[in-house]
Amino acid sequence: MLVSPESAIVESRKAYLTTVDELNADDKLVNDPALSRRVATITGRLVTVATEMYPSTRNWQWSVAIVDAPDIVNAWCMAGGRMAVYTGLFEKLKLTDAEFAQIMGHEISHALANHTAERMSRAMATSVGVVAIAILSDKPVVAAGGAAVAARLALGLPNSRTAESEADQIGMELAVRAGYDPDAAVSLWEKMGSREGGKRPPEFLSTHPAPGNRELTLAAMIPDMRPLNPTGQLAPVHAVEIMN
Predict the structure, then answer these.
(1) Which of 11, 107, 164, 215 is catalytic?
(2) What is the dihedral of CA 164, 166, 171, 176, to 10 degrees?
(3) Is the pTM of this model over 0.90?
(4) 205-241 pLDDT, tens per residue?
(5) Residue 43 CA: distances (Å) to CA of 128, 171, 179
(6) Are 155 and 206 in contact (CB under 8 A)?
(7) CA separation for the pair 135, 83 (Å, rounded)
(8) DSSP for residue 178
(9) What DSSP designation does 164 have?
(10) Distance between CA atoms of 61 and 51, rounded to whole angstroms?
(11) 11 part of the active site
(12) What is the DSSP letter of 239?
């Protein structure tokens, strides 16, 4: 670990704001009231549960950028609660609310479990990260400027299987406690695997490598998850900023 969780939050904020500025300049931020409400409502319920389970995240600046990219099936959450959702998720997968909750619960879980700091550290430790950072700064790799670059590079790195399994479990729990059906975790991955008849896999899978038995593993977790919220009561909606 070359990057602490605290540094990951600080540097992710810098990287996120830079990314959002670029998207805004390219007119790629969606300003659709209906979609914005849907994303803010579902994500806000997950954030309510996340802040209850992880009190240290109550001061995170929870926000979502909805990116106009109809061919990209992807979403992510940086350290500190900075998120992005690509419109291809909805257009290609025809997501139910519960399936979208599973995606965002999974993404938020990566941030809760400090996986951003892990991926930033790996970005710094790889030749790609070292070269990219060296171009921008003559300071040591672990310098502040380099960490901001690593935060952006980390978005393209795959998670470890351990990190994926951890995010699967935490993410399903977040979604269930927020009031969403855990069966959606299985239907979501069935959609991911069969999208467009098995043609080019979603961008999501390039950074979220799926073990062959993932659907079976998720299905096996469902009986233990249902008792966490047997009536499916919806959680209150935490305020989440939609970036536009």
Answers:
(1) 107
(2) 130
(3) no
(4) 555 655 457 788 899 999 999 999 999 999 999 999 9
(5) 33, 12, 12
(6) no
(7) 27
(8) T
(9) H
(10) 12
(11) no
(12) -
